[in-house]
Amino acid sequence: HCPPNQNCLEPPLNVANFAMDVHNRMSSYLYAFKVVNIISDTAQLYPPARVKYMLQIQAAQTVCENHASVNLTDCALQSNAEIMTCSFTIIAVPGNDYIPKHLLSDQCV
Hints:
GO molecular function: cysteine-type endopeptidase inhibitor activity
GO cellular component, one term: extracellular space
Structural class: mainly beta
Family: Belongs to the cystatin family.
Protein name: Cystatin domain-containing protein
InterPro entries: Cystatin_dom, Cystatin_sf
């Protein structure tokens, strides 16, 4: 658990990458997308320990085929990559790796 008076929120990029991974897995994209820009991020505390993150991000198409074990860190962007904007809502328990994050909503256009 988080020590009192500590900011234990996860870095927005970690949360965004988690959401993008889930979105890729649920989609039928031929190539995986990765986060290239975080437009906005907000976090709401839900006592006792949960945090709801609302992110708006830009994602770009990579050269990596979209499959469950794709490692987006190593994926280069396509030269004329398709860009999409996504809104994600994620619930998490920061500082606790045993409780998985959940993607509550995702919308990409």
